[in-house]
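Recap from last week: sequence in, structure out.
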Amino acid sequence: MKDSLPLIVIVGPTASGKTGLSIKLAKKFNGEIISADSRAIYRGLDIGTAKPSIEERQGISHWGIDLVNPGEYYTVADFKRYADTKIDDIRSRGHLPILAGGSGLYIDAILFNFEFGNLPIVEKRTTLQKMDILELQNYCVKNNIKLPDNIQNKRHLIRTIERGGIRGERSKCPPNNTIVVGITTLKKTLHERIAKRAECMIKNNVVNEATMVADKFGWN
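Predicted structure tokens:
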């Protein structure tokens, strides 16, 4: 029974109401929410990322928030490993897992079961990051590593080298026990909500928040 609980995935544009809907569903169906927002993972960035407050969460367990400090290395591969584990944990408690996002790549990584291969070696990545694009291209050629489709993208070149030229696999469709809910909203309504959200952020001192985080963790 626990294994048969579906994964609910809520997607939609910014300010479309994903957070509110996920909380309503969680309250009605005994669910727990996993945030798929690539910015909400950072501690200290509460206002600027529009994280739901403790009050707004209404007692519902929220995961995927405040995972790392700003500046710490965290990739979509890290998120997928984290989210897969949380989905299993939530189901093991007999609760309904709800993935709400957020960041399209994070959502797709779960829906289509992206395979990322081995974790990068920090020391090797540091060396590769010091190389320019031409040096990375030459490294691939010299070591018989098939170049990525975009040979001008430094990040793609580095990941290609780390994987030894082996491309990651992905499923063609989501698992059968997955329900994807897409929210649509009139563009005018979205613009009004986003403008109102931005005003609230300014009023709540988002600039001070950003400055404090940058002073503590660095401006780069």
